[in-house]
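Hi support team,

I'm opening this ticket because the web form for multi-chain structure prediction keeps timing out on my end. I have pasted the exact lines I submitted so you can reproduce it. The total is 457 residues across two entries, so I didn't expect it to be a heavy job. Is there a limit I'm missing, or should I split the entries? Thanks in advance, R.K.
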Amino acid sequence: MDTVLLFISLVAFAALVVGWMMLPAQVPGASEAATSAPAMHAA
Amino acid sequence: MPSSATAVNPGDTAWVLISAALVMLMTPALGFFYGGLVRRKNVLSTIMHSFFILALISVVWVLWGYTLAFGPSLGGLIGGFDWLGLNGVGGEPNPDYAPTIPHLTYALFQMMFAIITPALITGAFAERKRFKAFVIFSLLWATFVYCPIAHWVWAAGGWLKVLGALDFAGGTVVHISSGVSALVAALVLGPRRGLGEEPFDPHDITMTVLGASLLWFGWFGFNAGSALAAGDLAANAFVVTNTAAAMAALTWMTVSWAHHGRPSVLGAAVGAVAGLVAITPAAGYVTPIAAILIGLGAGVICYWAVQLRTKLTRIDDALDVWGVHGVGGTWGAIATGLFATMAVNPTAANGLFYGDPSQLLKQLVAVAVTWVYAGALTWIILKLIDVTIGLRVEEKEEVLGLDTTQHGEVAYQL
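Hello R.K., no limit was hit. The queue was backed up. Here is the completed structure from your submission:
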């Protein structure tokens, strides 16, 4: 049983790592929001 | 003279005393965890819930809490009054509970569990409950909900303990009881004014991450301290606690990232707490590999429990106590029935995956009983308070914020 659980754990962790590589790296629209924030502050 | 079987061991005593201090830290840490999640006008009142309970239950536990929870059993249902005021609880070990530490040390360690449990519920009624109502609720809940369940599960002669249900550090006693009670509290109080119409964003996520980090730190005392000795079982509990928290943080963040398109800092922090909750009942019975799977399950199940509660209901469990503690505790209790192995703890039992399906049934009984009892008693207590002193603040007070209207103070002079 321990070997089966180890195998499942390895697969699950590998899936997470692959997910991090595949998922979007930037929040949509965040760049525009970030550049406008200082301007709002100055205003 | 005590017999050699119950002689005080200095190493064990030091470990449990330090663990009690670690668990104590968790309650103010919870205050910061919750405090960062509310709006600026309610941060003090939210922190005060945890800080006040630290003081309140410390006194209750000495007066009558410990004897009700752990006193000589009356039919497996509740403790007798033999140890009222901690009378008779002294330096000699009690072999029924911990044969190598003073009985007083055991009572102190358990006090910290009794403190944090009602504090967990406060996340559900944040930003709208009257302070007086909160005080009375905490007092009644600790007495009539926490003490009986602790007795059933942990006390010598407690009926769930006799049945064989396993709960190493409080999956049922602490997390299911508080999580289910939180859901009932949110239902009875109703949603916060303006929910769905105005932003309810956390006012300080840095505070929440600090709180989660301190909770993680304190949880080593919570789980590894529950071995009640400085030995191999404590080491196992320490490792699996850290492992499950880490895996759940990674998993929650990843699921949230896939769902919302961003790796949320708040998601990682809440995920870690969900993993800590889920490993709590299992910490003394499972291997590190099982802890990875328990953390994985906590990250997925608790995340979707929170999402579904939000999408499908109008129940305003403001800080997701049910999704994290109620559901996480339930998953942990069930996982104990799946992954427990006597290779880790020869005095316990094997779970389904190690050849004993009956253990899973015992875990399910403990889960169901805790859900029903905690839910029903919480509803009764809240209704009694509502018809006497009232549960909610008035609309104007809620709009102005509880810091000003309940405590006459503000958190930030900006």
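A quick check on our side: Chain B has 14 helices and two strands. Let us know if the file doesn't open in your viewer.
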